[in-house]
Amino acid sequence: MGEAMKKEIAALGRTAHDLTESAYRSHPSTRGEAGWADKQRILLADMALHLLQTALRDGALPADELRRNLYAILSVSDQFIPDDGMKAVADRLYAT
User: Fold this and answer.
1) Of the candidates 44, 39, 38, which has an alpha carbon nearest to the alpha carbon of residue 24?
2) pLDDT in tens, 30-53
3) CA 14 to CA 71: how far, in whole Å?
4) How confident is the model at residue 96 (pLDDT cuts 50, 70, 90)?
5) Please, are residues 74 and 88 in contact by the beta-carbon 8 Å criterion?
6) Mean predicted lDDT score pLDDT of the chain
7) What sign has the CA pseudo-torsion 58, 63, 64, 65?
């Protein structure tokens, strides 16, 4: 990927990340309320944007940061697909 494209994607990612975090903070639901799943979807999007930022960094991918990004995505995803054991997969990232 060219440097100009990488910078453009990173800039769009930062904007999307800012908007997503703002939406999460302003969402009024708490665990157990009707809108909780909606708020968790926003959190999942936020975690995906963190992964984007990690992937676009210069140099080698920092394994600890990549592991942290994937752990968060898998952990949040577990509530949407509970029969697939996403949390168990996430926990294995730190078992080694």
Assistant:
1) 39
2) 998 989 999 999 999 999 999 999
3) 21
4) low
5) no
6) 93
7) positive
Structure tokens at 59: 């140099």
Neighbours of 76 (CB within 10 A): 20
DSSP 31-93: TTSTTHHHHHHHHHHHHHHHHHHHHTSSSS--HHHHHHHHHHHHHHHTTTSGGGTHHHHHHHT
Contact 18, 11 (CB under 8 A): no
A 10 A CB-CB count for 13 gives 18
The C-alpha atoms of residue 68 and residue 34 are separated, in whole angstroms, by 29
What's the pTM?
Answer: 0.88
- Tokens representing 5? 């494209």
Q: Are 96 and 85 in contact (CB under 8 A)?
A: no
Q: Where are the domains of the chain?
A: 3-92
User: What size, in residues, is the chain?
Assistant: 96
